[in-house]
Amino acid sequence: MDLELRDKVAVVTGGTWGIGLATARLLLQEGVFVAICGRNEARLAAAQSSLLGNENPIRLMAVRCDVLNKDEVDAFASAVERWSGRCDILINNAGQARMSTFSDTTEDAWREELELKFFSQIYPIRAFRPLLDKSDAASILAVNSLLAYQPEPYMVATAAARAGAQNLLKSLAREFAPRIRVNSVMLGLIDSGQWERRFAAREDRSQSRDDWYSQIARARQIPMGRLGKPEEVARAIAFLSSPAAAFITGAQLEISGGTSRHI
Taking the complete model, does pTM exceed 0.85, yes or no? Predict the structure, then answer.
């Protein structure tokens, strides 16, 4: 199926590793002009080198940017405007999880978590909206978590913040229609950078990677028996962001291997 993505312009925040990197790579393969950002200079350079491969360098832009710094996000949007003149697709992917209960989450930690989950959406959307308005196929895609609907007691702050961000995105889908579509992917456990770090810090050093991940899948009762792959999420993101999904807005696509228990 032709997703009609060729020569579209996409911005991917948190595009230097995991889901963001996989998404940028897939979009480049679809003929998209892709701008990625990340906070870490070394990781950004590595991602840029990895993505280029046989691709035309003119199709990729990589900018160091902290999505919680409004000035840096505005500068990123200005750089994209000079580079392409427009933005058709904004993929808000930056973010991470905080493992804590209500009892051990400090007030500062609550503020940090709420700021991350909300302003990693708010700043990019505000900065890129004028460019999205120039597109005839504008789309915002947020990478969110199943925790927004199905909270876990050991991730109380992250779950609460993600639920609030999802409410915001649903509101924006109505406010921005029909000019800009707004959708989300709701993730379960995906084998990306966070899980790589947890594997590296595992207690049983003799445990192989496959055994460790299989144990996690069993413990979390994932019906598919494994964690998801970043590439699997990237395919869903590409579809929802594309003109092929032109009548889809305000939607949430679950990618969890069947983990959810809600209807």
Answer: yes
Domains in the chain and their CATH numbers?
9-190+229-254 (3.40.50.720), 192-227 (no CATH)
Q: Collect contacts of 54-61 with beta carbons under 8 A, ≥24 apart.
A: 55/28, 58/33, 59/28, 59/32, 59/33, 59/34, 60/24, 60/28, 60/33, 60/34, 60/35, 60/36, 61/33, 61/34, 61/35, 61/36
Cα atoms in the 13 Å half-sphere on the side-chain side of 4: 11
In angstroms, the CA 146 to CA 256 distance is: 8
Q: Provide the residue-wise pLDDT of the chain in tens; the chain has 263 residues.
A: 899 999 999 999 999 999 999 999 999 999 999 999 999 999 999 999 999 876 678 999 999 999 999 999 999 999 999 999 999 999 999 777 888 889 999 999 999 999 999 999 999 999 999 999 999 999 999 999 999 999 888 889 999 999 999 999 999 999 999 999 999 999 998 887 677 777 777 877 777 877 787 888 888 888 888 889 999 999 999 999 999 999 999 999 999 999 888 87
Are the C-beta atoms of residues 81 and 132 closer than 8 Å to each other? no
Identify the burial level of 74 via C-beta atoms within 10 angstroms of its C-beta, where 0-12 means exposed, 13-18 middle and 19 or more buried.
Answer: middle
3-state secondary structure at position 138: strand
